[in-house]
Amino acid sequence: MAVRSSISRFPVNLEEQESSGLPWGITVTPFSATDERGAPPIRGGADGGGRILPRCEHCWAYFSTYCDLENWAWTCALCGNYNGLTSDSIKRFSSDCPELSSSFIDLELEPTGDDESGDIELKARPVYVAVVDLCSSEEFIELIKSALLAALEALVPGSLFGLVTFSHKIGLYDVQGPIPVVKNVFMLPDLESTLPMPLQDVMPLLSFLAPVETCKDRIIAALETLRPATSWERTAPSAGEETDGVYFGGRGFGSTITALIDYLGSEYGTTFALADAVQAGVCVDLFAVTDEYTDLASLKFLSIDSGGSLFYYSNTDDSTLPQDMYRMLSRPYAFGCILRLRTSSDYKPGNAYGHFFPDPQYENVQHIICCDSFATYAYDFAFDNKEGFSRHSDHPIVQMAFQYSVIEPVDESPANGPNSSTSFKFCVKRRLRIRTLQFAVARNIHEIYDSVDTEAILSILVHKVILASLEEGVREGRNLLTDWLVILTAQYETQKPSVSDNNGSLMSQIDVSFSQCPELQPLPRLIFALLRNSLLRLHEEEPSSLHKAIYPVLMSYSSPDKQAYPRHSLSRAALITSGSPIFLLDAFTDIIVYYSSTADPSLPFPPPHDCLLRATINKLKQDRCITPKLTFIQGGKDDVTLFENYLIEEQEVDGSIPAVNVMGFVSFLQDISREVLEYLK
């Protein structure tokens, strides 16, 4: 669980918080394997420690290392309440346990055991269903085949797999017999979103979901039979035509998803029932590959509401769909999650941002259907009163509690020796992850500025801007962003003395680049890039990924094995003045290696696979949630447009190239300076 605060030293009161001009809040990546410094949690054993972990009788916070502990009682670090200890807790605390040694712990909520000795764990098997749109081109179908073959390689043995196709009919594949068999059910528009019969009547669920380890060859054979509906059903009536009194529908995406969720769901609609139950909802990931208009704004809610993701590819030629699908299915996931934020007295959580649902009964409790190690959420803080924190009070405390389920394989050796058939079993484990953090209160506003986390600020700002854009329009979202930078700069200026110019008139020399505060210096460039960048759709990424998506990282190399500079501004001037022959640009979705036109011809192009530059590229790709497109460009020989488009500091906010001698980012700073002067007047 990585927690990053926009400012690591909190303002003492409301007046100081408003005077700073900075957003006050945190970003949380709950299922991250480590904290923001790379340290993993202390994990509890199979004793169900999360069930008996002491909780405050007043605020319901969990015991942590910041609490005062006595022989029979403890004092809550958040609210100061004095609580007694149960006999179970006293016994637990008499020996080493995670909550006594670390403020970052991960505990089981239920004990494990053998089936014959009272095992209460639910046996489960991971279930994956591929739903393929056949109203498409041959190129799309070939790409889908490659992607699903990659997906099969990523699935762990014991997983269940189902294949569904849709056009004007739904096809269910049975791959458990000697040859794959598809059974179709036509969608009739007069029945609106329903089918003539439930999918369970078309094919029993046990026939539809096939074990990957025993049916992999037949699943591959079934994939090879996929063809676009327009080529292998030429004799069928066209979509929307009536034949012999039967009206056939068009692309039945909505009907397919509705019927499929009913097919996979139990009577409660949230659990899947096979021989045993899987404690997980149906999570939908959407992969859209099209160069035509597609209403992604509407489609996104299917993935958002189910805890999935939406991937968009503009064409089949450059699509990284197979790599992305393999990465996605190789990652661990948490299901049925509950995220709870608690704070100590004098301040409280404000707004919450992310793809989660607020609990209808309890404040500051969010429900997350499914999340991976990259999913990040954000919170604002607000004071309970104008007085804020007492100068002599304890340090402010933040506690994040994350309750989640994971599906894990059960390690079982074959009963009859190594030559007997292997039986794959899985179990659902419910866990509780708790992170408690203590912060300091700033003694003055300069300590606040010195404690800034630029990437956390950016993440919170993007959430705010997107929310404003959805509620009041894109123009209002852009205005909010510009106004924020103006106010921040103005508030920063008020902390400096006024100076006199050459004419003797008094005016404030606007330091719009924050030259005296290194922690604030990246913000103007980030806001400039955000105002002209379409990557606001990546607002759920972790802060460091979001930074690269909005303002790419440009580094230079004197040779493939020697880095020259770790970071440059995104301008042609930076390329020229650096004198370096090789540049590596990381734009999150794109990684570009650029050899300048003046590079020594003896430098190997493209760089060899065993060099430092290649190792850096491989590390960037490995740490990413999607597969970035890698491009090599040789200046003077190749088209350099792709690379130069990322040199945004010489473009205006709207993306256009400015007039001669007028630099885009420079003119943006000048505009901000003028607005700051007007604001201060």
TrEMBL record:
One of its GO terms (molecular function) is zinc ion binding. Pfam families: Sec23_helical (PF04815), Sec23_trunk (PF04811). One of its GO terms (cellular component) is COPII vesicle coat. One of its GO terms (biological process) is COPII-coated vesicle cargo loading. Signal peptide: none annotated. Residues 453-543 form the Sec23/Sec24 helical domain. Residues 125-232, 276-328 form the Sec23/Sec24 trunk domain. InterPro entries: Sec23/24_helical_dom, Sec23/24_helical_dom_sf, Sec23/24_trunk_dom, SEC23_SEC24_subfamily, vWFA_dom_sf, Znf_Sec23_Sec24_sf. PANTHER family: PROTEIN TRANSPORT PROTEIN SEC24, SEC24-RELATED PROTEIN. This is Protein transport protein SEC23-like protein. It comes from Carex littledalei.
